[in-house]
Input
Amino acid sequence: MRAFPMFIKTTGRKVVVVGGAENSAQKVRLLAKTDAQIVVCASELNAELRQKMDAGRLTQHTGRVGPVEFAGAAMVFVATGCAGADVAYRDLAKQAGPLVNVVDRPELCDMTTPSIVDRTPVVVAIGTEGTAPVLARLIKTRIEGLLEPNLGRLAALAGRLRPAVDRSFAGQQRAFWSWVFTGAPMAKFRARDEGGAAQEIEASIRNRVLPETNGLHPIDVIETGAESADLLTMRAVAKLQEADVLFHEAAVGKDVLELPRRDADRIAIGDGAAQQKDAAQSILQQQSSGARVAVLVTEANDFANALANAAPTSAQVQIIVHRQGRASETVPAIQAIAE
Output
């Protein structure tokens, strides 16, 4: 990456926009969704900007513009429509220190504005480092169709309930929220039964009961082959994102290792039968402690067999094998895979 993706806090902070025409209005339209204090530096404003000023959403600075106007700003957007003026204002802003975006001039930008999918407080930002904004908008359209329109309200509810969840499910918060966002509450939100979803979540917190989480989590053995990450099934990728602990062979590609959560513990599996046996024992120990375990291997049969054979005969161990381009298989413990 040549640009680091991040979110900038706007509460109690000033954002300056230079210019009063359509290009500036487009930036203000986006900024007005935040709680930033918007200052527009321009002698004249177009109708849309005047309307936002009359509504108290922005203030106008009509005087001379110098570094003092940019001091303390979180961000500056320069959109005068004049190439020479854009460079001059950008230089003035840089003297005051904030990050600067010059509209349609990526070579002058410290930051670029992404295409945004807004389900506040859930926000998805898509960027192409200024190289292909049309592609970013196409990706945005696809993601818009994937996310429920009311997803933000479920996220907001989750935010309000987090302190209560921390008290009721200390050490089990991830399992609780996994149930909320993949189980019955999410299904009710999709069906527009938001009240029913909230009642079910609150009842679980009140009763300190984790629905649908009895027993040990299955061990997910994910076969990567010698191919790239884009050939993994969607279910396999989802399991990588859910895993608390990731075991992986050295031959697994770097692009595949980019897929799991960054905070998941990662443990390398050594080459050879003895190393596989040791890894199998460690995996079963992690599972017995309540962790969600995923295993990345280039070929699944041998390792799934090693896991099954390492499990005690009395254990209720479920092993799920995910193969590229094929449905997953459930493998009982103490039973080899039959191809």
The chain has three domains: 14-113, 151-207, 219-332.
